[in-house]
């Protein structure tokens, strides 16, 4: 016995390595042969190790979303749009992970957290803040007008980021930072969002890194990334955000606030920026929208939200923008805890046991040519019938705000901001706004996964130049 111990001690490196190798080998064999999902086809390396996904998302930089699309073509896999309501049901128990209402794993706990927010983001509640949204949209247009005098191009995404941040902070905390009044719309949350997006692939694989980041003092955070100053200001606003005890602890409320502000700022401003690009890039589309808006607009006021929502072509533009924006490009998994999920079509027949995550990727549904012919084209007409009336049979395939019981809580606020802001910009200075050194391939087309879609790394974003009245170009 003593000689055996002596041998182990003498060759401890080899012994330790053998144990590790044996353990890893056992895990791989289990995953490839005995795992409940082993019968579902796919690359064996992806079944054996997370390194497959890590390679595409961390090493190649947000490319796993495209690899998923390639796998759908190589393997008989689940990319059937008809499964949207199966993966994201409106009822039944489905879990996911995280400390906020958006990220909560447990279905019942999610219901508690979501229930506390629902009443504040209902259509009725949002209608009460409509005057402030209209006022902020008018302020945005005035700020954009000021750049016409200097002939200076504007990073339109920064302007819209300031617009949406001013609204959500006023709405949630009763205090706006008036970012629209800042010179060149700086600071805004866009730089901080970009910094967070850069960390998402690593945080997805190692969630514990977030706790470490929260321990970094603000002064050091600012040295590493000056763009985080706006987020640090949001932290200071927590004193205005009141709830209680366990579900109202400062840490959880802070995370809830971060998610609300981030989601309301980044996604909606991105959607409005995208709509602006397509309207300016397609003069005929802009002309049709302008004519429709003028038909109900007065000289002094932007039409009401209720009136804007009734315009079929405007509604089609909003919907087509949402199709192109994708919402979360990253998968939003759901864990069905009670029942197995049966995924069946002519090409496959799988049964996924309870407790395993399921997801669909919005990009591959929104760009499905069988649903949307010429999917890369921006065609609002695809949402209209021959008489120009809005048809809604394709709406069920939109995943921009996710689906099911965990659909985005801020959907009503997002729609209100999009309608009012786009209408204001179109009526007030749309004809005097032109794209500046912005192309689809470099600045708009999806290039990488950053939770939401991101363009090429060297993109300067969607930029516009407001023209002086005498420079008006008729379209």
From TrEMBL:
GO terms for molecular function: heme binding; iron ion binding; monooxygenase activity; oxidoreductase activity, acting on paired donors, with incorporation or reduction of molecular oxygen. Belongs to the cytochrome P450 family. The keyword Oxidoreductase applies. PROSITE patterns: CYTOCHROME_P450. Keywords: Heme, Iron, Membrane, Metal-binding, Monooxygenase, Oxidoreductase, Transmembrane, Transmembrane helix. The lineage of its organism: Eukaryota, Fungi, Dikarya, Ascomycota, Pezizomycotina. Its cofactor is heme. The chain crosses the membrane at residues 12-34. Heme binds at residue 408. This is Cytochrome P450. Pfam families: p450. InterPro entries: Cyt_P450 (IPR001128), Cyt_P450_CS (IPR017972), Cyt_P450_E_grp-IV (IPR002403), Cyt_P450_sf (IPR036396), Cytochrome_P450_monoxygenase (IPR050121). PANTHER family: CYTOCHROME P450, N-ACETYLTRYPTOPHAN 6-HYDROXYLASE IVOC-RELATED.
């Amino acid at each position: 016995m003593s000689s055996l111990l002596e041998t182990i001690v003498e060759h401890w490196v080899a012994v330790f390595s053998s144990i590790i190798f044996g353990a890893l080998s056992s895990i791989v064999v289990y995953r490839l042969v005995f795992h409940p999902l082993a019968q579902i086809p796919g690359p064996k390396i992806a079944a054996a190790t997370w390194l497959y996904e890590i390679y595409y998302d961390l090493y190649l930089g947000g490319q796993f979303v495209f690899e998923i699309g390639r796998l759908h073509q190589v393997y008989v896999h689940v990319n059937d749009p008809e499964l949207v309501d199966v993966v994201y049901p409106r009822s039944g128990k489905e879990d996911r992970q995280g400390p906020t209402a958006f990220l909560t794993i447990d279905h019942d706990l999610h219901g508690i957290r979501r229930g506390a927010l629902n009443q504040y983001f209902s259509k009725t509640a949002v209608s009460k803040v409509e005057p402030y949204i209209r006022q902020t949209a008018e302020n945005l247009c005035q700020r954009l007008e000021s750049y016409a005098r200097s002939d200076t191009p504007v990073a339109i995404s920064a302007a819209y980021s300031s617009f949406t941040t001013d609204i959500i902070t006023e709405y949630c905390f009763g205090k706006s930072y008036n970012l629209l009044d800042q010179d060149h719309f700086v600071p805004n949350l866009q730089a901080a969002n970009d910094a967070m997006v850069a960390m998402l692939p690593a945080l997805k694989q190692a969630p514990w890194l977030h706790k470490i980041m929260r321990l970094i003092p603000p002064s050091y955070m600012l040295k590493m990334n000056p763009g985080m100053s706006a987020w640090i200001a949001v932290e200071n606003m927590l004193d205005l955000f009141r709830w209680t005890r366990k579900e109202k602890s400062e840490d959880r409320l802070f995370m809830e606030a971060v998610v609300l502000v981030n989601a309301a700022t980044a996604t909606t401003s991105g959607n409005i920026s995208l709509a602006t690009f397509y309207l300016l890039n397609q003069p005929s589309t802009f002309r049709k929208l302008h004519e429709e808006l003028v038909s109900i607009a007065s000289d002094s006021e932007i039409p009401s939200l209720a009136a804007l929502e009734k315009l079929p072509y405007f509604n089609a533009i909003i919907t087509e923008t949402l199709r192109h924006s994708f919402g979360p490009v990253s998968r939003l998994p759901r864990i069905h805890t009670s029942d197995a999920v049966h995924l069946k079509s002519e090409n496959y027949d799988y049964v996924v046991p309870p407790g395993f995550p399921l997801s669909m990727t919005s990009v591959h549904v929104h760009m499905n040519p069988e649903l949307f012919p010429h999917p890369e084209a921006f065609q609002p007409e695809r949402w209209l019938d021959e008489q120009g009336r809005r048809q809604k049979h394709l709406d069920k395939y939109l995943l921009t705000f996710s689906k099911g019981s965990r659909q985005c809580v801020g959907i009503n606020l997002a729609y209100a901001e999009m309608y009012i802001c786009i209408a204001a910009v179109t009526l007030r200075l749309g004809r005097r706004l032109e794209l500046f050194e912005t192309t689809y391939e470099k600045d708009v087309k999806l290039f990488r996964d950053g939770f939401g879609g991101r363009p090429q790394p060297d993109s300067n974003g969607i930029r516009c130049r407001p023209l002086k009245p005498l420079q008006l170009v008729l379209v």
